[in-house]
Write a structure and sequence with these properties.
alpha/beta, Rossmann fold, 37% helix, globular
Length: 133
């Protein structure tokens, strides 16, 4: 995630990778290249409160908006759990755009789609075992 954020920053955007699991295990470093990290991520996900997570992201968004280097426009991009959070940001926040890659569990919150006011792009992987079609 850090590498992706660096690429956005190099393109001129203000980019941040939030510590989603700070309530459970602050500053944890996970990789998608380790089976142990995958298992730890699933363990943390089980105890993750999505509603509080979205509240944290909205708070982060409001903080970033006030930075002098920010144009005032905010978007979110997320993968897997982050993909679901990007969808929820589209339904619950004033973010100007949101992009979800392989968002897990979005189908549980489809009723919130009526709240979407700004562009949302969903990328769904047909062959991803963790994403329902």
């Amino acid at each position: 995630m850090r590498n992706i954020a660096h690429k956005y920053a190099e393109a001129g955007y203000v980019a941040i990778v939030p510590d989603l699991f700070w309530r459970q295990e602050p500053e944890i470093e996970l990789s998608d290249r380790s089976e142990d990290d995958w298992q730890k991520a699933f363990e943390l996900y089980q105890g993750f409160d999505e509603n509080k997570g979205v509240d944290d992201l909205i708070s982060t968004m409001e903080t970033i908006k006030n930075l002098p280097e920010c144009s005032g426009k905010i978007g979110s991009v997320g993968f897997c759990l982050g993909g679901k959070l990007a969808y929820l940001m589209a339904t619950r926040s004033p973010a100007e755009c949101n992009v979800s890659y392989y968002g897990v569990g979005i189908e549980k919150n489809l009723d919130e789609a009526v709240n979407i006011q700004h562009p949302l792009m969903l990328h769904v992987a047909e062959k991803d075992d963790y994403v329902s079609l």
